[in-house]
Specification:
Length: 767
């Protein structure tokens, strides 16, 4: 109330209060009336227009208008007050100065900043940079440019870098190129991610955009034109992003509150040949990877950046401590002023810089050390250092990011295994079909001893090229990696990686496993075979199990090759609960697999060969499993042998290919086919083993209650050595998964004793 009363009289402004008897309150009421709104935006627009008009009239009335420089600009762009998008930092601006550059309207299309206002006005007032009393300041005068000495402004657009900052979000624009450094809470990247813009996501820490079209013209975004900032091109232009990050850091360093003022522009970089004039500015006198001194205000000292001779923690290093200390050895003629260290976490967020300490001085260089840096998540990290010399120019050298790996765990071996497993899991996440393929690869590799080799000349290995090829990039990156060996004191082999892939595949497939089943890698140290290529194709060709094994032959094979007991053999056969059989690979026709849900490792495999659902002690109910019928798969048109298999039709009268299958070796877990399998000769003359014609899988109807004495052919005898364990698994999924984990671990160590291998330690399975 007091404020308004003091304003009610005595304020006579032509074009504002004068027309209302010098009464401010009446004028305010008139503004609201004209706006037809109480919005501050609408009211402010009229008020500002009136105020500018009042100043204009006062200058005109006092004959000072033609000799007055009027600059009008907004304090932020239309997109938002606190955004570093182009729509937030580009502002409307015009200048009126008749005696300076005439009354005809014209446009000068240069790239200018509000920091240029001071130098420009002083220049028009006759106080230029050459004046000995001129106070140094940032920014450039536009006077000569506006007077057309520098033409249309293309030189200013191509040869200048401007810097922007809002809260923790920063950017630099040089010509058409604009680089961002964004905090974890950046509203810009949140908006970009929400819009689904290419190259942007919520973890984006750095971005690079091209603001121009293919002709080098700036693209003005509006309702019909998408902003060029919608496409983050940093992945395809890492060198350019690296150079612009150095310019941004140069600007941040020289404008710090605790640094003596320096008045040069950070801009330009010739670490690589400069790009076209429409992009990075090819200004003279640049340093290698640091600041460029404005030629109009050069320092008296050197412009050569510091030299980094070497550093610890090289690219590809595997760290097992979560508080590493990084070192840089550097030199410069004017000595080193500072070394700042920085981390980028696995999510892509750039952590705050920290100051290093001078640790050692020698004749040739200085050794600088970071404080302990905290690594708080597992994955691929990166670090870099920014070295600044003691010259007046504060020349800098910005190291490129040095990538390293960190994995928290109970042991260094566990850390390395966890890193590799995470990459395998990414493969599986992108392709669920790899789950059973990795399990099949693990079994075929470990027949005869796990040695990271599969002989692809053996037809029974057909199709294994798919999982082998999928793992090649990981094998090339980690197998026999010197950095890993140095970090953990042991070598991780291709065979180890294949075993790890087997466990990861099973882990993804075994949904609902009890909490004590973790599918952990327990040991490394397997030895790769000789005679195979780098991928693991070739080498020894051990004999694989026949699909036509009877019960005794099945138990004998697994005892001789893996040392499995009869119970362990029943458990490992449950691997058939995931995956399918493709005719072109094996000759068997089972595209829908062995069970109703071939994507999940479970006891569903045993449910299909054991009957009953309530009482696990009623023998004849258990015998009366779903019906299985033999069929012959003739493959003369394929590069695969013809086969005998058992099938179960999900819908008996259906003509759709929805059958599931079993092999003779599967049926052998519940039926003893020892005296019933014979060879079948096809019309083509091909002999196919495994035909069963002298016994039936189950009784018909209620005959099971009496042992189906009238069945012709009679019921096949049950497999005494394995039937009871298969029954246990059919009624207890947790028991099956626990036993399968144990026997899988034993399988993946086939050919080695515990003393041959190195314990991993730590539970590294992830879900």
């Amino acid at each position: 109330g007091d404020f308004r009363s003091t304003m009610s009289t005595g304020w006579s402004v032509e074009g504002m209060t004068k027309e209302f008897g010098d009464d401010c309150m009446l004028y305010r009421a008139n503004v609201q009336e004209r706006a037809q709104s109480t919005s501050t935006h609408d009211l402010g627009s009229i008020w500002v227009d009136d105020a500018v008009g009042a100043i204009y009239k006062a200058l005109e009335r006092t004959s000072q208008l033609d000799d007055t420089v009027i600059l009008f600009q907004l304090d932020h762009g239309k997109a938002g007050k606190d955004e570093i998008w182009e729509g937030g930092i580009r502002i409307p601006q015009f200048i009126h100065y008749p005696n300076g550059f005439g009354t005809a309207s014209r446009t000068w299309d240069g790239m200018v900043s509000t920091i240029d206002v001071g130098p420009t006005f002083l220049d028009y007032a006759g106080i230029s940079e050459s004046n000995p009393h001129m106070y140094p300041m940032d920014g450039r005068s536009w006077k000569n440019a506006i007077d057309n000495i520098l033409g249309s402004g293309d030189d200013w657009k191509a040869n200048r870098c401007l810097f922007f900052e809002s809260s923790e979000e920063r950017s630099v624009r040089c010509g058409c190129d604009k680089y961002f450094q964004l905090s974890s809470s950046s509203p810009e990247k949140a908006e970009a991610a929400a819009n689904g813009w290419p190259g942007w996501n919520t973890n984006t820490a750095e971005a690079l955009v091209d603001l121009c079209d293919t002709s080098g013209n700036y693209v003005v975004a509006d309702l019909s034109v998408t902003s060029p900032e919608a496409v983050n091109i940093i992945a395809s232009e890492p060198q350019k992003a690296f150079e612009l990050s150095g310019l941004l850091q140069c600007h941040l360093d020289k404008t710090k509150a605790d640094v003596a003022p320096t008045y040069f522009e950070c801009g330009g970089n010739t670490a690589t040949p400069p790009p076209t004039p429409a992009t990075l500015p090819p200004t003279p006198a640049p340093s290698l990877r640091g600041t460029t001194i404005n030629p109009t205000n050069p320092p008296e000292e050197d412009t050569t950046p510091p030299i980094v001779h070497f550093f610890n923690t090289e690219a590809g290093t595997y760290l097992t401590t979560n508080t590493p200390v990084f070192h840089v050895w550097a030199s410069d003629d004017s000595s080193i002023r500072s070394v700042k260290f920085q981390l980028r976490d696995p999510s892509g967020n750039i952590r705050n810089q920290v100051n290093g300490d001078l640790a050692e001085v020698s004749i040739d260089h200085e050794k600088w050390a970071s404080p302990q840096m905290t690594l708080d998540e597992s994955g691929e990290w990166a670090w870099r250092a920014r070295v600044t010399d003691n010259s007046a120019a504060r020349n800098q050298f910005l190291m490129p990011w040095v990538h390293f790996h960190f994995r928290g765990g109970d042991s260094p071996v566990a850390a390395a295994v966890g890193i590799i497993r995470a990459e395998i899991e990414q493969l599986i996440n992108g392709n669920n079909a790899l789950r059973p393929k990795f399990l099949r690869l693990g079994f075929h590799d470990c027949v005869g001893g796990c040695d990271g080799c599969v002989n692809m000349d053996n037809g029974d290995n057909a199709g294994l090229d798919v999982p082998i090829d999928a793992l090649v990039p990981i094998v090339e990156k980690y197998a026999h990696n010197a950095h890993i060996t140095a970090a953990i004191g042991s070598t991780i082999s291709r065979a180890d990686i294949w075993a790890l892939a087997t466990l990861a595949g099973v882990d993804f497939a075994a949904g609902g496993a009890p909490s004590d089943v973790t599918w952990s890698m327990t040991h490394i140290g397997r030895v790769d075979c000789s005679g195979a290529d780098a991928a693991g194709k070739g080498g020894p060709d051990p004999e694989l199990p026949s699909p036509n094994l009877n019960t005794h032959e099945l138990l004998d094979f697994f005892e001789q090759n893996f040392g499995f007991s009869s119970d362990e053999t029943v458990a490992i056969m449950g691997a058939h609960s995931i995956g399918a059989a493709q005719r072109q690979n094996s000759g068997f026709d089972g595209p829908h697999g062995w069970v109703n849900n071939p994507n999940q490792l479970s006891n569903g495999y045993y449910d299909m060969i054991i009957g009953g659902s309530v009482d696990p002690t009623n023998f004849w109910d258990l015998i009366h499993a779903p019906q299985w019928t033999q069929e012959t798969i003739e493959n003369s048109n394929l590069d695969a042998p013809s086969r005998i298999q058992w099938f179960h039709q999900k819908t008996p009268d259906s003509t759709q290919p929805d059958k599931i299958i079993m092999l003779n070796a599967d049926i052998a877990l519940v039926r003893d086919l020892s005296d019933h399998m014979v060879d079948l000769t096809l019309p083509s003359g091909e002999v196919v083993p495994g035909s069963v014609t002298t016994c039936s899988f189950r009784c018909s109807g209620n005959q099971r209650l009496t042992g189906c004495p009238d069945r012709n052919p009679p019921l096949c005898p049950h497999a005494v050595a394995t039937f009871d364990k298969a029954t246990e698994y059919a009624f207890d999924n947790d028991l099956f998964l626990r036993d399968f984990e144990s026997v899988l671990d034993k399988m993946l160590k086939n050919g080695y004793s515990e003393t041959d291998l190195v314990a991993v330690g730590g539970d590294l399975a992830t879900t």
